[in-house]
Amino acid sequence: MKTCVLAAMLLAAPAVTSAQTLDDLKSDGNVTIAIGNEPPFTAIDSSGKVSGAAPDVARAVFEKLGVANLDAQVIEYGAMIPSLQARRVDAIAAGLFMKPERCAAVDYSQPVLCDAEALLLPAGNPKGFKSYADFASNPDARIGAPGGGTEEKLALEAGVPRDRVVVVPDAQSGLKMLQDGRIDAYSLPVLSLNDLLAKSGDAKLEVFAPVEGAPVYCDGVAFRKGNTELRDAFDVELAKLKESGEFAKIIEPYGFSAQAALSTDRDTLCAQE
Known about the structure:
- This protein is α/β, with parallel strands linked by helices.
- The protein has 2 domains: 4-113 and 219-270, Periplasmic binding protein-like II (D-Maltodextrin-Binding Protein, domain 2), CATH 3.40.190; 117-208, D-Maltodextrin-Binding Protein, domain 2 (3-Layer(aba) Sandwich).
- 37% of the residues lie in helices and 21% in strands.
- It is built from 12 helices and 14 strands.
- The strands form 3 sheets. A 6-stranded mixed β-sheet has the order 3-4-1-5-2-6.
- Helix 2 packs across helix 9.
- The chain is elongated and about 60 Å long.
């Protein structure tokens, strides 16, 4: 895997005009992306090398497009789109989730990294839970969720009775309650559950994601508005990456769900408030 070089960005410094087209990028042999220093979306080690799910996917796609080198500039999230518009960077690959107002300002690729609701449950999912409604239809099923959180709200809205939505004070308590059989599943966002399961080392449990019917929030690589030629070329290679399974191999070690990215699309996400 090629190394991504970190170029520390000072917004007050003179701006370097970025490339315009894919041909420009190929000619330069370099693409510059905006990132945020927020693991697991991005990770920066003490030497300044950049990894993380977002730059790793961007690097893989741009390499397939014939652009060998990827540089990254750390930019605050609120300054990313202005920096893209000012041509300080060629793209944003940073966990900048799609929202209608952002979609109006940039051209996003298809989904890359998603945060979706998930279920931690016994390996093999013997009771077949795939949605919050499944818990409502099973009169014996109990689901654990943080009190006052999104997961509790979604379970109740799906019709799970109050007495079968078990309020869990923290992640470790949720894990223990599931292991002890006091609940049938514990629900949190997929990143949180993947981290919890990895740290527990419990081979008798697995994470199911995304929860069917629950909202999915995703980023995509963002390009300047109107630069659809570059965006579309990126999408073609991103689709191939997803189809080949290489996409999952890149992002799942970081705790992201490839299936969540495959479960939705740009148009849906850009229309989602």
